[in-house]
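Trying the structure run again after the queue cleared.
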Amino acid sequence: MGGLTVLKQVMAVLSGENTVYFGDMGRAPYGSRSPEVLKRYSEQIVRYMTGHYDLKVVVTACNTVSAVCLDHLRETFDIPIIGIIESVPRKAVETTKNGRIGVIGTTRTIQSGVYQEKLSALDRSLRIFSQDCPLLTPLVEEGWTNEPATRLIVGEYLANLRHSRIDTLILACTHYPVLRPLIQDCLGPGVTVIDPAEECVRDVVRHLTDEDQLNKNNHPERLYLVTDNPDPFRSSGERYLDRKIHKVALVDIGGLESGR
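Done. Tokens:
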């Protein structure tokens, strides 16, 4: 479901583009999966999508996949593939005033060290504070975005970052923008919260502009593919996107894994 926060940005900024969204509901969450499994799953999805649809670009709307699998996917497929991480470190460096940057994400994203590495490459004087938040994704998936329990858990996860005096926080999971009001309230107005989806969409716009591929269609097609539970996806997805979802297709996991 988290990738819908990226899709929402795409539809807002690139309102004329046709979109195909793939939500791997049957095998989620990805945040604690091994790199080998993540590469296999993401490769299967890109192979399916490029085999069934005439795509201009693929966006890996998941920080975990972008952190672990992006190089593998680019080596495997000819189609342009844009990750959600690449432009975020520069934005964070431009934003911070005191050189203290926080990163929250899934266990696998934090363990990959990708944000820490890219931030340090830009400025070795930065102090980077990371925190994995494995309970936040299931809370968002359940729609628990403003419950007392969610507030308590967010506060626990952010306590060390708050005490570290960060002035910039990267939301390194596409689920977390749904909790942005809680996160901002916990950290206070002195901390700037960065949503990677906003930076990712700028990369997509830049790519399509450079390739002269921008679509001016006023009636774009929106297609949604899931590997399980299309009806719950539809109801939750409409809440995420603030719009109706009309086409949800179920993709068989067995066929996906066999390459059909």
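The domain at 88-194 is CATH 3.40.50.1860 (Rossmann fold). Worth checking whether this holds up in the mutant runs.
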